[in-house]
Amino acid sequence: MFEGFFSSDPAGITFLLLVGSMALAGWLITLGLFAAIGWYGRRRSSVLWKSVDRNLRRPTLWLGSFLFALSGPFILNLEPGAPWPQLSLLLEILLYAAFGWVIVEGTDVLGDLVRNRYRIDVTDNLEERKIITQFQYIKKVAWVVAVVVTLALILLQFEKVREIGAGILTSAGVAGIIIGLAAQKSIANLLAGFQLAFTQPIRLDDVVIVEGEWGRIEDITLTYVVIRIWDERRLIVPLNYFNEKPFQNWTRESAQLLGTVYLYADYRLPVEQVRGHFYELLEQEELWDGRVKGLQVTDADRQGMELRFLMSARNASEAWELRCRMRERLVAYVQEEFSGSLPRTRLEWPPSNGAPALAEKP
To answer: Looking at residue 347, what is its pLDDT?
Structure first.
């Protein structure tokens, strides 16, 4: 197909040099344009123009070069020479590839704008995480669509591929059934992804308990969800899991949580005094959000009593840290002030066969 592309004909070589010159001109013009965009973005501290310069510079340089090279003969009113048909086909393929690259990188520009507008590094970030979760999934779908369309446009430049495509269209019913059966799980995952993105039982950065593991939603792809476990492991879960099985979401409606600490003590422990000390500790703790505090005796049996300390925090991470701090300080307080009220096991040894009980020593 590309026979005679590198022709030794002087006219052909001249024509190729002209096309190369136009490609270089497109490269330089685009480079100058992005130099201006980068300068303006730095001067104005503009997120938009900084993102455009960072993400679109490289693909647009190639796009500009191929576009100028392809349109060069028409701009200069030149009559295309012998190598032009093969060169034109090659440039069209490269132009489609560069355009697809621009589309993919363009979604990253939109991503930067969305993340700048809806920041999740704030305390109350529920609405922001909703928007970013939806955008992340739409962006991934847009990547797939851009790649598929680009490949289709490239393949359609070849005559034999168009003939195969026409043959497939004539048997579209059978092909549709075969493709549908083969891609059943993939399509189910894709639909599950849309459902998760817009009904949002989970969102990015949600705190969840899945399969007995506590972690945060780190990424939602087209087929699976990545959960970052507290000890830095990653739990990979199929999208359909969240539509078919129960799980815990600690930040579904709000990041605020109630935390509990349980202590077990003897009946002689003065509960009211412990309650007062617990409230004093909370007032001094920056992790407590000031909403809820309480101490209740939630159980009592032959061994002793169960005390439940209730406290609130702004999010799951702070609630966990607050519970650990309070547990440590409360245990130390009981050890120091009421060591006689620590949990104990009582054993009574009754006298047998009428033998007198041992006298208790003073």
So the answer is: 63
pLDDT of 294 = 93
Helix (H, G, I), strand (E, B) or coil at 233: coil
Q: With b meaning 16 or more CB within 10 Å and e meaning fewer, what string describes 184-195?
A: eeeeebbebbee
For residues 323 and 312, what is the distance between their CA atoms, to the nearest angstrom?
A: 9
* % the chain with pLDDT above 70: 76
Domains of the chain, first to last: 1-117 (no CATH), 125-252 (2.30.30.60), 257-341 (3.30.70.100)
pTM for the model stands at 0.53
Distance separating alpha carbons of residues 209 and 35, to the nearest angstrom = 48
Quick one: 295 exposed, middle or buried, by C-beta within 10 A (0-12, 13-18, 19+)? buried
Mean pLDDT rounded to a whole number for the chain:
79
CB 104, CB 146: distance < 8 Å? yes
Pull the structure tokens for residue 48.
């938009």
Main-chain phi, psi angles of 201, to 5 degrees: -65, -25
| CB-count exposure of residue 52 (10 Å: 0-12, 13-18, 19+) | buried
Q: What is the pLDDT of residue 5?
A: 47
- Give yes or no for residue 362 having a pLDDT over 50: no
For residues 340-348, give the mean pLDDT. 73
Cα 323 to Cα 287: distance, rounded to the nearest angstrom: 10
> Residue 108 burial (CB < 10 Å; 0-12/13-18/19+)?
middle
CA-based nearest residue to 302, from 343, 330, 256: 343
Q: Are 16 and 55 a contacting pair, CB within 8 Å?
A: no
- CA angle (125 as vertex; 122, 128 as ends), nearest 5: 115
Contacts of 3 (CB under 8 A, 6+ apart): 86
